[in-house]
Amino acid sequence: MYKKILVAVDGSSTSNAALGEAIGLARDRQAKLRLLHVVDSPYAYPDVMYGHVAGDLEELRQTWRKAGLDVLNAAVAQARQAGLEPETRLLESDGLRVSGAIIEEARQWGADLIVVGTHGRRGLDRLLLGSVAEGAARTAPVSVLLVRGAGAAGTK
Fold this sequence. Notes:
The protein is an alpha/beta fold. It has a single domain (4-148), classed as HUPs (Rossmann fold), CATH 3.40.50.620. Helices cover 44% and strands 20% of the residues. The protein has a five-stranded parallel sheet with strand order 3-2-1-4-5, with helices on both faces. Mean pLDDT is 85; it is low at 123-129 and 152-156.
């Protein structure tokens, strides 16, 4: 059923749980696996969001991209240990919400399934912090598997 699985990774324990699920699904179904990491672009709203940051915006951008590549490399290593050779994609949000960038990547790549970790936040925490997982699930053109990480609300 699933031939192309997109998993969003950010290096968190929740993201790692989602990666583990995506690896298992891809291996069991002999599906292609794409690992996606989305970084903010300090150029999207430089005066509003990053105008108070000391230093060069390009230096900040490169630092975030390097951190994103480190996350992707760790995820690739995990997938390879399971016998998979995943594709990777590092995106800059360019003003999009992270969930929007995930959905756009899924559309362009032709994903059958999106796998995203969720912290299981509720109430004010969810309202204030927003939810990448919720945004992806609400607007995705394909199925979305939400994976709760250890310590998520309602888990033990």
